[in-house]
Design goal:
Layout lengths: L20 E4 L2 E4 L2 E2 H7 L2 H10 L5 H15 L3 H9 L6 H12 L10 H26 L13 H10 L5 H14 L6 H11 L4 H12 L7 H9 L5 H13 L17 H16 L3 H18 L6 H10 L7 H22 L26
Length: 373
């Protein structure tokens, strides 16, 4: 018998084939399109269409896709009331997990052919920002706002959250983070969604599986933790001193390192300059000093690069967004990638069922309770 291959955490193991995206040291691409080009030129709607349909949309296809998103954005009163009943102390990801599960009960697509799967994906993509915005307003003692057809996906969320149209820069930055977060190959949540799909469970269950997996602090949530860390310090010197001490004491500093990228996260490098521009525009140089002090110290002492969550946390803070919705906004983007993986797995399926290496006691016989002493 050949020796079993075992790698903890499945590191380096090829667990399947995909056409959705590829993550390499020197590139990240969605369906063959490099992230740099998509980040510079594409709207999130174009990227979502690309992930779901395999090609960038024509102008008529994009207009139709946006129209279909608008048709699904309004959430049912039952979903609003469910969100309203959740205790205020409950975290945003828990609320979103429940809200998406509830939304699945209002599925309007029929059957399990590819067009129906795509329609369910569009529904999930549309309602996630609406659920996040509704929760945000309810926590603030305000009633949810109906969506405003015609706004971009990014602007729509900001409108429903704050009741006014966002600035051009705010819309651009949120759109950029949605593009950067949309997809990332066989990461933990996407793989979990594929496992769910491989059992032929429904798309909404797979989306809830993705949310539940992303909730874990070792996968999602680093943008929130990074911002909490940055907020602790008043100056770059203070931040540098703490970071050096933290490294000495082997503290985990969130927003740094990546299982695949060892030479730096392409997405972080794209986002950081625009985030820095926003910080300067909003007279937040002190926060920027802290940000760079932590980043530079981690690299100087450990040679570990930041990942996209590090600049994203400060980006969302500068936009006036509460920390508790940073990871839910990650979901608002990543639903597109999860859905693409779900459809790919579901339509060309073999159930995902790996083996384990048993390390427990050797085989033994049953001993009756009277003989066990």
């Amino acid at each position: 018998m050949s020796e079993e291959l075992y790698r903890p955490g499945l590191e380096g193991i090829i667990a399947g084939e995909t056409e959705v995206s590829t993550v390499e040291q020197d590139s990240l691409a969605y369906r063959g399109y490099r992230i740099e080009g998509l980040a510079e030129h594409a709207s999130f709607e174009e990227v979502a269409y690309l992930l779901l349909e395999g090609e960038l949309p024509t102008a008529p296809q994009l207009a139709d896709f946006r129209k279909r998103l608008d048709q699904h954005r309004a959430i049912q009163p039952e979903i609003v009331e469910t969100v309203r009943m959740i205790p205020k102390s409950v975290g945003g990801m828990d609320v979103l997990r429940t809200g998406v599960s509830m939304a699945g009960h209002f599925d309007v697509a029929k059957g399990d052919e590819r067009p129906a799967l795509v329609e369910r994906a569009i529904h999930a993509l549309a309602v996630v920002p609406s659920i996040i915005a509704a929760r945000l307003r309810l926590l603030d003692g305000k009633e949810p706002i109906d969506p405003k057809p015609g706004l971009s996906h990014a602007a729509q969320f900001l409108y429903m959250a704050f009741g006014k149209a966002p600035s051009e820069l705010e819309e651009k930055l949120l759109n950029l983070t949605l593009v950067l977060y949309a997809e990332h190959e066989f990461n933990a949540s996407a793989f979990a969604a594929r496992v769910c799909a491989s059992t032929l469970s429904d798309l909404y269950s797979a989306m809830v599986t993705g949310i539940a997996t992303l909730k874990g602090p070792l996968h999602g949530g680093a943008n929130e933790e990074a911002m909490k860390l940055i907020s602790r310090f008043k100056s770059g010197d203070e931040a540098k001193a703490w970071t050096e001490e933290g490294i000495k004491n082997k503290a985990k500093i969130m927003g740094f390192g990546h299982r695949v990228y060892k030479n730096g996260d392409h997405r972080a490098r794209i986002l950081e300059p625009l985030m820095a521009d926003l910080a300067r525009e909003r007279n937040q140089q002190a926060k920027l000093d802290v940000y760079f002090a932590i980043k530079n110290t981690v690299f100087d002492r450990k040679q570990i690069h930041m990942n996209v969550d590090y600049p994203c946390g400060l980006t969302y803070y500068l936009m006036g967004l509460p920390i508790d919705i940073y990871t839910p906004l990650f979901v608002a983007s990543r639903v597109s990638g999860w859905a693409a993986h779900y459809i790919e797995q579901y339509t060309n399926n073999r159930i995902i069922r790996p083996r384990s290496r048993y390390v427990g006691p050797a085989l033994r016989d049953y001993i009756s309770v009277s003989e066990r002493g």
